[in-house]
């Protein structure tokens, strides 16, 4: 079959090697005569996969020993609620920096739990062209935590330097740029990410949280929503999404065997540089609405001179087996999501098409 050139924003492209491994093992996992989907989550076969996935997260992101690695369900949207449910106790307030649709949703959800305030925003006329500078943030030194969204899929912006929140725990939604490069996990109190961009299929949510925050978390909330419950049970308190975690393990294994984080970051930067250069070289035809210092390495957004040309661009791209290029319905335009699993060859094909289309 001819694989599509997949620029979907999420669920997104997965490494071919990870999918082929799943294909080979689908009916008979390691000689057990069953698919991994048919194994008990309490059995040894699945236990091995589960532990490997967590170990690979720890290895690739150099997660310190004083952090728990949790594999949960519900996506980032569930974490919009779980974070304040666990970490926000009266009379404390939480700080939220608004940089796009998802950070606004996280803030709105926090307000249903307790007190929260906007510590910074760059919104203008409903749009975001950059992330705030450090001087623009008005952080509360007494806040329970400060929340950011590190990459904004809809508007194509990204934090390249994380804010210094001092003693206040920094909480980050990294759903759309987790694992694109190495980070210093110790700078964060809690990181969460839906898997469907860089980690694996939809249905798995990664949470990396400082153990001290888990221990201090509220106990007056339902058991299943307490981080301590999942930490104490190795993310096996209830039945986890076993096949999703299996595929996450496969994806992380591909990253490790492909040169690790340093090689992955270089590939990602090279892809983004290639695509942004193609846009900037033809600024009278293609325009990126994001300020250069805030441009996302994961989601490249741009527009054409007219909506009619954008529709024609998308139709012609579809004929070339390119999918997922339509911008989010709230902003329009074009969006190429070039996550970890998108090979450079696909970006080269897009750049070549852009040149021919302009001509």
Please give a quick description of this structure:
By secondary structure, this protein is of the alpha/beta class. Helix content is 36%, strand content 16%.
Q: How would you describe the overall organization of this protein?
A:
The protein has helices spanning 16-25, 44-60, 75-87, 101-111, 211-216, 227-232, 242-257, 260-280, 307-319, 344-358, and strands at 5-6, 67-72, 93-98, 115-121, 123-124, 127-128, 146-149, 151-152, 157-158, 170-173, 190-194, 205-210, 299-302, 322-323, 334-337. It is of the alpha/beta class. It has two domains: 17-257, 3-Layer(aba) Sandwich (Aspartate Aminotransferase, domain 2), CATH 3.40.640.10; 260-358, Aspartate Aminotransferase, domain 1, CATH 3.90.1150.10. Strands 2-12-11-10-7-3-4 form a seven-stranded mixed beta sheet, with helices on both faces. The chain has a two-stranded parallel sheet with strand order 1-14. Strands 5-6 form a two-stranded antiparallel ribbon. It is globular and about 60 Å long. It starts with a strand and ends with a helix.
